[in-house]
Model the fold of this input.
Amino acid sequence: MAATADTDALWLRRFHPAPEARARLLCLAHAGGSASYFFPVSRSLAPRVEVLAAQYPGRQDRRHEPCLETIAEMADQLADVVEPWTDKPLTLFGHSMGASVAFELALRLQERGTVVNGLFASGRRAPSAFRDERNHQLDDAGLIAEIKRLNGTEAQLLDDDEILRMVLPSIRSDYKAAETYRPSPGPKLRTPVRALIGDSDPKVTADEARMWADHTESDFDLEIFPGGHFYLNAAVPTVTERVSRHIEQSVTILDR
Done:
């Protein structure tokens, strides 16, 4: 199904439109996360890079839509929406669950003839690094405890009963998508993969992150930052600089 202007508006946020930019970055958030998580990244990179941020169904202005419960569904729907934006070099940045979505999206775009410029997999083990996690099956109290253990943006919001009722369904659906995700056999990516993790992240070890190298025929590297699962909250300037440098170098190579 081809994307329309309406589906673009639902799925993609452009906080700082930069039509003159030579390249784009698409950011995909963690379980329970939203496009607004990447507002600081967009502000930092504009106007050199035009930043798009995916807004999944079931949260914020899409809170009345049913949530998607598989990574495949998210990637399938995003592929139709994102494909028209690949007229300029496109790099993907996914944090936690968003890294899995970004990987599957990159595979779908590759099948359609577009090799993305790079995949930044943040705070997420490689698709082949399986863990039998079932947090999505916990009762509300158990799921809230898990979120607070990770000390994410949502953890501080869950003490408000009204907000809790609003966001918990999307968090549970996203956890289900992330925890039940299994990669399908198929070709490897032909794009560089950069894994970024926190040194005390309980959700991914360095060895699990290094396994991303098995999913690409191109370059791979791993960078480890101080912090836990949401190391990115404190590391936005450094990570943004890494992403910007990668985009500038890759676009320069394309221009040769």
